[in-house]
Every structure is written in structure tokens, then in C-alpha cells.
Amino acid sequence: MKKIVIATKNAGKVREMKDAFAHLPVEVVALSEFGQLPNAIEDGETFAENAAIKAKFYMEKTGCACLADDSGLEVAVLGGRPGVYSSRYAGYNAEDWANNQKMLEELCIADVEESPANYRCSLCFADTDGTLLTADGRCDGVVRKIPHGKNGFGYDPYFYTNEYAGRTMAELTMEEKNRISHRGRALRKLTQKLEEHLA
Ligand SMILES: O=P(O)(O)OP(=O)(O)OP(=O)(O)OC[C@H]1O[C@@H](n2cnc3c(O)ncnc32)[C@H](O)[C@@H]1O
Ligand SMILES: [Mg+2]
């Protein structure tokens, strides 16, 4: 069976990505099973560039096909910030609560209670034969200063979805989140390409 490494150090992403592969005839392996690997340098200017950097970097480190995700939140009144800097908005290795705090501060400086926002996700699958498969996804909603919910990760408690009116991403089950999320949408496109590649 084909072995695919979920090339991310984010446990929230691993949970969501494993779920999407449940029906494919592939062996899904976490990056953590390869011990302590160095971090890829995510110095691309776009989500797509960073996803490709991570997929190729970890494919070389593990010797296995790797699927990487680069994603983030774009807040309209903040000119699209934090964008590709979402995981380090409050500094390198910042925890989710610190990044959320930083976003609340920026919303206060902008003097607004809420703003249209969207999540974006770029996926890149790098196979050992040099094949690269890519897919993107987007999810629109609104960020507000009052958090709700304990599910998901990152900015989810502050992200009010358009599809499930009044509910934040952190109030959804994983199945509900995957149905509408940037990552869920990108994963469905990517798995289709992957099925063709593996056939
Ligand atoms: O690079 P890897 O190892 O995959 O893990 P990471 O957490 O650093 O991931 P990114 O560099 O892609 O940064 C994405 C950040 O965007 C945020 N984010 C992405 N998808 C999200 C989601 O579905 N829900 C909430 N926040 C999300 C969250 O803060 C992530 O840390
Ligand atoms: Mg990262």
C-alpha cells in the first residue's frame, strides 16, 4: 500500500487530513513517526509556495511521498493580515491564544467589532518520483471579538461561518468543518488528483 506522510507539525491539521484519507487505499503516516525533524523554512510569498517548500523538504527528509498544507486567515479590515504569517502573527512559535490576542488588538486599533474574513489553504503532494500535485481551497466568514466553541484549532473560535449561521468554526464537529472549510475543499480536489496519480 502507498505510504503518504502528512507533512505538518500541526496536530489540528493532522486530525482533519487523516479523516479525508480514510476512504483511500493508502497508509497515512504522521511526520512525528520520523522522530525530531528540522522545520522547513517557510519563506514563500504565497500559501502555494510554502506548501510546495514543505512538501519537497519533508519528502527529501523522510524518503516518502509527502502531503503538506500551508494555510491562514485573511481579515479584510486588516488588509488581508495575518495571511501567510498566520502561525507567527504574534512571533515565531507563537501559540494559538497569542495569535488570537494579536488579532483582537489589531481589530481594536482598526476600531471595528467585526470584519469579513476568509481562510485559505494550499496543499502540495510531492511524490518520490518528482510528481507534484496541488490544490487550493477557501472558506468565507466573519471574525468577531467574542469567541465561541472549543473544537478545531487556531483562529476557529473567532471565525463565524457563513454556512452554519451564527456558529463559529470551533462549534462545528470535524465532519461539519471538513464539509465547508478551506482545507476540506482543497482536500477533496487533491484526493481526486491523487486517485488518478495512484491508479
Ligand atoms: O507549517 P505546519 O507544520 O503545517 O503547521 P503550522 O501551524 O505552522 O501551519 P502554517 O504554517 O500553514 O500556518 C497556518 C496557521 O493558520 C491558522 N489556520 C490554518 N488553518 C486553520 C484552521 O482550519 N482553523 C484555524 N486556524 C487555522 C493557524 O493559526 C495555523 O497555525
Ligand atoms: Mg508553519
TrEMBL record:
**Record note on cofactor:** Binds 1 Mg(2+) ion per subunit.
Out of the domains of life, which is the source? Bacteria
Q: Which Gene3D superfamilies match?
A: 3.90.950.10
Report the InterPro entries cross-referenced here: dITP/XTP_pyrophosphatase, ITPase-like_fam, RdgB/HAM1
Q: Which HAMAP family does this UniProt record tie to the protein?
A: Non_canon_purine_NTPase
Query: How far does the signal peptide extend, from start to end residue?
Result: none
Give the binding site residues for Mg(2+). Answer: 70
Q: Which cofactors are reported in the record for this sequence?
A: Mg(2+)
Q: GO CC terms on record?
A: cytosol
> How is the subunit organization of this protein annotated in UniProt?
Homodimer.
Protein purpose? Pyrophosphatase that catalyzes the hydrolysis of nucleoside triphosphates to their monophosphate derivatives, with a high preference for the non-canonical purine nucleotides XTP (xanthosine triphosphate), dITP (deoxyinosine triphosphate) and ITP. Seems to function as a house-cleaning enzyme that removes non-canonical purine nucleotides from the nucleotide pool, thus preventing their incorporation into DNA/RNA and avoiding chromosomal lesions.
Record's catalysed reaction(s) = XTP + H2O = XMP + diphosphate + H(+); ITP + H2O = IMP + diphosphate + H(+); dITP + H2O = dIMP + diphosphate + H(+)
According to the UniProt record, what class of enzyme is this? hydrolase
Q: What name appears for this protein in its UniProt entry?
A: dITP/XTP pyrophosphatase
- Native organism is Selenomonas ruminantium
Source taxonomy lineage? Answer: Bacteria, Bacillati, Bacillota, Negativicutes, Selenomonadales
Give the enzyme's EC designation: 3.6.1.66
Residues forming the catalytic site: 70 (proton acceptor)
Keyword annotations for this protein? Hydrolase, Magnesium, Metal-binding, Nucleotide metabolism, Nucleotide-binding
GO MF annotation, one: nucleotide binding
> Which family is this protein grouped under?
Belongs to the HAM1 NTPase family.
List of residues binding substrate: 8-13, 71, 153-156, 177, 182-183
For biological process, the GO terms are: nucleotide metabolic process; purine nucleoside triphosphate catabolic process
